[in-house]
């Protein structure tokens, strides 16, 4: 088994170390020659994951053809904005039997295509899956106990990913709901911005708890309208990922919201952060898609007004408190459960 990680950000680097720590050789592909030289010199990715030396079986490379053509499993972790371009570049080198797994949490603008859909369009006939969950790269690299979800319609792909990734500190669960797993990973970034803002304003733990649970309701409502299974959002790819992203200072989207609530503009906060916060792009495309689908998402809409229409965090909280009081968990059908139990 040979693995290639396409994209050398913090998550891609952490994945390379997981795989190689299990004894599986892994290429870590990057586009930037300067970054490659730094990794070769210091033995670690100081730009994105400093302090964590690369495992012995990780081979950094600038040669895309080498990495792709020799590998049985490709793990693609480039940002969503460049995911299609990357998929096109991969196409000439990917073998028919190679497994391709997206680890990118985002949505393509303006098409609202998920990463699995882009792979299917640009790499037709290939065996495709996605991976998502509460997977903060620094904690993975530090050996903290972590769980994730691999989703695919190909059971053999799921088994391969479980075999390559699973370790004493990293657990891999499976799912057939590709869209649900992907949407969970993309949508939660929106609400992490909200919770970062709320934390900076010290709104209280009751408010944070309500923000997170109502965020989960919006996410599952939207995903169901897209054809995903809302019950997927009760697992690691849904509530698990949402919880960690909305509460951890290591979350880029949380950090972005925290800075904005401290008085920075969106542009200033993004520049100060210095890392891509996928939630901003996702919010744009979700705003447009939500209007077309007619999905009720008061928190997402309030955040859109804050970031792009000069609204305030007070508007988010007021919107939450004045929103329609619907069922707590809409898809659970509590009257049915009461009748059977």
Would you write up a description of this structure?
There is one protein chain. By secondary structure, the protein is of the alpha/beta class. It has two domains: 3-176, NAD(P)-binding Rossmann-like Domain (Rossmann fold, 3-Layer(aba) Sandwich); 182-335, Orthogonal Bundle (N-(1-d-carboxylethyl)-l-norvaline Dehydrogenase, domain 2). Helix content is 52%, strand content 12%. The chain is built from 16 helices and ten strands. The strands form two sheets. The chain has an eight-stranded mixed β-sheet, sandwiched between helices. It has a two-stranded antiparallel ribbon with strand order 6-7. Helix 2 links the parallel strand 2 and strand 3 (58-61). Helix 13 crosses helix 14. The longest helix is centred in the middle third of the chain and has 23 residues, at 178-200. It is globular. It starts with a strand and ends with a helix.
Quick structural summary:
The protein has 341 residues and is an alpha/beta fold. It has helices at 10-21, 33-42, 64-69, 83-90, 115-122, 137-141, 155-165, 178-200, 205-225, 236-247, 252-261, 266-273, 278-293, 298-308, 313-322, 334-340; strands spanning 3-6, 26-29, 58-61, 73-76, 99-102, 107-108, 113-114, 127-132, 146-151, 170-175.
β content, as a range? 5-15%
Q: Which structural category fits the helices and strands?
A: alpha/beta
Radius of gyration: 20 Å
Distance between the termini: 49 Å
Total discrete domains: 2
């Amino acid at each position: 088994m040979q693995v290639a990680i396409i994209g050398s950000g913090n998550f891609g680097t952490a994945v390379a170390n997981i795989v190689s720590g299990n004894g599986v050789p892994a290429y870590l592909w990057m586009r930037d020659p300067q970054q490659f030289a730094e990794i070769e010199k210091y033995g670690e990715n100081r730009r994105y994951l400093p302090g964590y030396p690369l495992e012995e079986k990780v081979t950094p490379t600038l040669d895309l053809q080498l990495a792709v053509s020799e590998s049985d499993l490709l793990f693609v972790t480039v940002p969503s904005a460049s995911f299609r371009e990357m998929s096109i570049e991969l196409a000439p080198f990917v073998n028919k039997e190679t497994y391709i797994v997206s680890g990118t949490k985002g949505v393509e603008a303006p098409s609202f295509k998920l990463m699995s859909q882009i792979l299917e369009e640009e790499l037709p006939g290939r065996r495709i899956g996605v991976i998502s969950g509460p997977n903060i790269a620094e904690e993975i690299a530090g050996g903290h106990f972590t769980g994730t979800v691999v989703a695919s319609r190909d059971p053999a792909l799921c088994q391969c990913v479980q075999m390559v990734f699973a370790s004493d500190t990293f657990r891999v669960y499976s799912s057939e709901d590709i869209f649900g797993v992907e949407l969970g990973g993309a949508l939660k970034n929106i609400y992490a911005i909200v919770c970062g803002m709320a934390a900076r304003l010290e709104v209280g733990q009751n408010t944070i708890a309500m923000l997170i649970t109502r965020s989960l309701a919006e996410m599952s409502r939207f995903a169901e309208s897209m054809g995903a299974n809302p019950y997927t959002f009760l697992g690691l790819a849904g509530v698990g990922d949402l919880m960690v992203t909305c509460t951890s200072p290591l979350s880029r989207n949380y950090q972005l919201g925290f800075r904005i609530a401290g008085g920075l503009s969106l542009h200033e906060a993004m520049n100060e952060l210095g890392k891509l916060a996928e939630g901003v792009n996702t919010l744009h495309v979700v705003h447009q898609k939500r209007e077309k689908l007619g999905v009720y998402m008061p928190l997402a809409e309030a955040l859109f007004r804050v970031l792009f229409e000069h609204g305030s965090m007070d508007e988010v909280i007021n919107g939450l408190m004045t929103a329609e009081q619907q069922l707590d968990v809409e898809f659970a059908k509590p009257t049915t459960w009461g009748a059977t139990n």
